[in-house]
Design brief:
259 residues, mainly alpha, 78% helix, transmembrane helix, ABC2_TM_bact-type, ABC_2_transport
Length: 259
């Protein structure tokens, strides 16, 4: 049974990846926007890295996580869109008539979205290195950033898939993902927590899980191997994934029961 599940997930993930490759314009805009963020923010705001709170850190390394996380949020929407397309063209109903595991039907598009994000993050990192990025923890640190990005993307992909299965509507699935973009800016997006002056924004940043993803990536990129700084992001990802994947699974169960 375990081998059957793995095979089903492999087949459906492969199909989702091939479908994405046939429509490159579905993910290229998200990649371009994330790269644009990186170029503009580094060019326009790098001067504030001279403030004492930055402690001499390179602003490119500080702002890079914003570009990576924005790619994660935008790319994760692809999982939901793929499921909605399958529902609309009848493929989802035909899948339900096959022996394929119901879990694989949900995980296939989610894993494909993760792979898409993995490639996007690598391309963004290449651009950052061409701009002069230096990573305090070296190659292993780059791998940690990739894993954090993919983990955060998994959480959003689960949410996107859950919304798609619950609503069976492309517009609703897209809108459900877009509401997470404000999370990027209600965080330590442009400056460290210490430089945020508004009390309400400090509260928002404290309860915002995106803050801990940013801090984990920045710890790896700037500060080095500091356990708690990295662990906070991993914990945030684990909690978010547990919630969103459960939401997707429950939505799939209801979608199947409704036929």
């Amino acid at each position: 049974m375990g081998n059957g599940l793995v095979k089903d997930i492999w087949v459906l993930s492969k199909r989702s990846v091939l479908t994405t490759l046939r429509s490159p314009f579905s993910f290229i805009p998200n990649l371009l926007i994330s790269t644009f963020f990186l170029l503009v923010y580094d060019s326009g705001l790098s001067g504030i890295s001279q403030l004492p709170a930055f402690d001499g850190a390179n602003y490119l390394a500080f702002i890079l996580p914003v570009s990576v996380v924005s790619a994660a949020i935008g790319g994760a929407g692809g999982a939901g869109q793929g499921i909605v397309k399958d529902i609309e063209n009848g493929f989802f109903s035909r899948l339900l008539l096959t022996p394929a595991s119901r879990l694989s039907i949900v995980l296939g598009p989610i894993i494909a979205g993760m792979l898409q994000l993995f490639v996007q993050t690598i391309l963004i990192l290449i651009v950052a290195f061409l701009m002069g990025l230096e990573v305090a923890t070296g190659f292993l640190g780059v791998l940690v950033v990739l894993l954090l990005a993919v983990g955060w993307g998994l959480a959003f992909a689960g949410y996107s898939a859950g919304i798609a299965l619950k609503t069976k509507n492309a517009q609703a699935a897209q809108a459900g993902t877009l509401i997470f973009f404000p999370l990027i800016f209600l965080s330590t997006t442009f400056v460290p927590y210490e430089l945020i002056e508004s009390s309400w924004l400090k509260v928002a940043a404290t309860i915002n899980p995106t803050t801990y993803i940013f801090e984990s990536m920045r710890t790896v990129l700037i500060d080095g191997w500091k356990f708690w700084g990295i662990a906070k992001g991993i914990i945030a990802i684990m909690i978010a994934c547990a919630i969103t994947i459960t939401f997707a699974a429950l939505s799939a169960k209801k979608a199947v029961s409704r036929g």
